[in-house]
Design goal:
This protein is an alpha/beta fold. It is built from 14 helices and 18 strands. It binds NADP nicotinamide-adenine-dinucleotide phosphate.
């Protein structure tokens, strides 16, 4: 029977504890099991919680938590649909495969789902929200963005009385750690990345993090919540940090900036720009000061002005705390649509026109040590109607090349792109210029 878009989260207080099935017993899954087994009454006013069943790939794998007292399922879909549980927690990860199949199966039955899976929701969130709405199931995902820092709750509940036009921040702790370490230690991207992998701060296959995709999934979700729109990861414009050189970090610092991977979603009427890219951020700005693996977020609302949120964006304890918060919300009977509006009304916003975006930019180039070089560069910028804001020239390097760095005043991104091409075409320039946007925050 079709139901209201607001999921029926009426719990079972005073009856039996809410029975939880956990699929995925890795970093986060083990944290959730540990926490709930040590604190079954963590939300004393609203009811008791007990893990009854689990699923993972390898039943005999050695883990930090003892799973022998829980019913084991080889198949997460069988767990999601089992009568042994009241609420399904998905902590497998990945946008397709078993995570998607199990979440779909639980929601189709009208069973509440709590997940930390940003990839799944950024890509299939609208379809999953429609299923949840049709069956009256809750679908909660606080842990999917900023780990233990309650960004989702803030947008979903705290700011519904305002119109939020922009969210922007640092949403991937691995990238933030790598950039911070490069600056602090003077080591290259490759060196810091392999150390981060050895310490377990970065995945063996780091593409999702360093390619900007993880931050892209998260900002897609925050944008959807902020604007009351369908999440649409395919429309996000994603660039990672692989091409950030140590020299850019140093030169940016000399100019008064720190390079950060910025994820931003901006709304302009029926249009939205959702993008992730490295950006020079003024040293005094709070986003520039969020170092190491911290996450940070600005939210701009018409009435509330600017909010700043900073905290741990990942890790076993914080992420398990966010999963527990969602379980408590479900128990407390909160009734809200998954992305602010009923899923049948949700539309993706149209992607903003790249030609209309503005930015200031940093250019690094290496030029031959000839008279007239500076005039040629200034002329190329003038032809694109770009004004120079600052200019740095370093001494001649071996091979006779001179490093030059300049920053521009804000201009249309099409002008910046044209300037990159115009400078690259100059005979005096040894290689195409490196361009990094300057954050407009
Ligand atoms: N780690 C964090 O700090 C963090 C923070 C925020 C959000 N998240 C999100 O939380 C989710 C889990 O992350 P994680 O770091 O805990 O991952 P993880 O340590 O790699 O754990 C993944 C778990 O899923 C299980 N699994 C994989 N394929 C399966 C299958 N076909 N059937 C059943 N189980 C399967 C694995 O089983 P085996 O153990 O048997 O191999 C493992 O227990 C992801 O969506 C991630 O993006 C993680």
């Amino acid at each position: 029977m079709p139901t209201s878009p607001f999921p029926d989260t009426t719990p079972l207080p005073g009856k039996r504890p809410l029975r939880i099935g956990v699929a995925g017993v890795g970093v986060v899954g083990q944290g959730v099991i540990k926490y709930l087994s040590e604190h079954p009454d963590f939300a004393p006013a609203i009811g008791e919680v007990v893990v009854t069943a689990v699923s993972a790939r390898d039943r005999y794998r050695k883990r930090d938590v003892d799973l022998t007292s829980y019913q084991w399922f080889d198949d997460p879909v069988a767990l999601a649909t089992s009568d042994a549980i009241d609420l399904f927690v998905e902590l497998i990860g990945g946008s397709e495969g078993p995570a998607k199949a199990a979440v779909e199966a639980a929601l189709a039955l009208g069973r509440p789902v709590v997940t930390a899976n940003k990839a799944l929701l950024a890509i299939h969130g609208h379809a999953l929200a429609k299923t949840a709405e049709r069956t009256g199931a809750a679908l909660l995902f606080e842990a999917a963005v900023m780990g233990g820092t309650p960004a989702v709750k803030m947008l979903r509940e705290g700011l519904t009385g305002d119109q939020v036009d922009r969210v922007a921040g640092i949403l991937n702790g691995t990238c933030n750690y790598i950039l911070s370490e490069m600056e602090a230690s003077g080591r290259s991207f490759a060196e810091v990345l392999s150390e981060a992998q050895a310490k377990g701060f970065a995945e063996a296959d780091p593409t999702t993090d360093i390619g900007g995709f993880d931050a892209g999934h998260k900002i897609t979700l925050l944008g959807a919540l902020a604007f009351g729109a369908a999440p649409d990861f395919a429309a996000a414009d994603v660039q990672g940090i692989e091409a950030v050189d140590l020299i850019d970090i140093r030169l940016a610092h000399d100019l008064g900036y720190r390079i950060k991977l910025i994820a931003e979603a901006t709304r302009d009427g029926d249009f939205a720009s959702v993008r992730v890219h490295p950006a020079l951020t003024p040293l005094g700005h709070p986003l520039a000061q969020a170092g190491g693996s911290l996450n940070a977020l600005f939210i701009e609302g018409r009435r509330i002005g600017r909010l700043f949120l900073q905290g741990t964006g990942a890790g076993q304890g914080p992420t398990a705390a966010a999963v527990a918060a969602d379980i408590a919300d479900y128990l407390a009977g909160g009734r809200r649509p998954v992305f602010q509006r009923p899923a049948v009304e949700l539309q993706p916003l149209k992607p903003a026109d790249h030609a209309k975006r503005t930015t200031a930019a940093y250019f690094r180039l290496r030029v031959h040590d000839h008279p007239g070089v500076i005039a040629a560069i200034s002329d190329a910028l003038a032809r694109c109607e770009l004004s120079i804001d600052s200019f740095l020239q370093r001494s001649v390097q071996p091979g006779g090349l001179v490093p030059i760095v300049l920053t521009t005043r804000p201009a249309l991104e099409t002008q910046i792109d044209a300037a990159v091409a115009a400078i690259a075409a100059l005979d005096v320039v040894a290689e195409p210029p490196r361009m990094i946007r300057i954050a407009m925050i």
